[in-house]
Amino acid sequence: MNTALLEIEGLAASYGQIEALRGVSLRVGAGEAVALVGANGAGKSTLMKCVMGMLAGVSGVVRFDGKDITTRSVASRADIGIGYSPEGRRVFSGLTVHENLLVASRDKDGGRARAEEVYAFFPALKEKSQAMGWALSGGQQQMLAIGRALMLRPRLLLLDEPSLGLSPLLMTEVLNRVRDITASGTAVLLAEQNVHKALSVSHRAYVIQLGRVVRSSASSELLAAGDLSSAFLGGS
Ligand code: ATP
């Protein structure tokens, strides 16, 4: 098995009385694509926010590259190489595609070079580089949101529900890029309700149900098991 890049042990998080995560442990190896699948409300987004350090009152341990980062700020987690593309395609509607990418970078020259690499992942963005954020289709906005998260060359990309609201064709196009991103050396933790596609682009997967990991295995094994929706996901 790969050296663990991200290691989570016994993670628990609540919103008031609601226990969203109840002792989750998982790992993502360097350069690995790991899917986090589960029904609506299972706790996938909460887990991503915990890894990024966005929630208070969390217990458990989060390690990145062997270091305990449990108490680190969001900014410092971004600094050490964790990128985050949240659910809901956050892009600046009043900036062009290119400007959206550059403002997600730290220095102009490095930013320009990195933007070209991002365009190589998403050629559709290159064609639209001078279009305003508001003028993009849902699929293009999602590509841009992922592109922005890639600008700092993260070692781990947290990708939350990238297929939400996309047509099957665009969903496939966006999720297929996960393979290219991992091939370029960035590990991916992908939260998805679209189980079949998420499993087909990932190496391993964790099935999460009511805040607990109920199964983990190679994605190919889960795919071969079939009938995932009723078996693990509460019908999603
Ligand atoms: P989805 O795909 O719908 O985002 P999810 O698997 O990502 O689902 P979470 O969003 O992590 O699930 O939600 C886990 C649980 O925590 C659910 O019961 C949800 O209702 C609850 N929850 C999430 N965010 C909040 C919040 N800000 N306040 C209160 N409860 C919340």
Automatic annotation (TrEMBL):
What SMART domains does its record include? AAA
Top-level taxonomic group: Bacteria
Cite the GO molecular-function annotations of the record: ATP binding
Which residue intervals define the domain ABC transporter in the entry? 6-235
Query: Would the keyword Nucleus turn up in this protein's UniProt record?
Result: no
One short Pfam family name for this protein?
Answer: ABC_tran
Q: What CDD domains does the annotation carry?
A: ABC_TM1139_LivF_branched
Q: Which UniProt keywords apply?
A: Amino-acid transport, ATP-binding, Cell membrane, Membrane, Nucleotide-binding, Transport
User: InterPro entries from the xrefs?
Assistant: AAA+_ATPase (IPR003593), ABC_transporter-like_ATP-bd (IPR003439), ABC_transporter-like_CS (IPR017871), BCAA_Transport_ATP-bd_LivF (IPR052156), P-loop_NTPase (IPR027417)
Q: Which SUPFAM superfamilies match?
A: P-loop containing nucleoside triphosphate hydrolases (SSF52540)
Put simply, this protein is called ABC transporter ATP-binding protein
Give the originating organism.
Polaromonas aquatica
- What are the leading ranks of the lineage? Bacteria, Pseudomonadati, Pseudomonadota, Betaproteobacteria, Burkholderiales
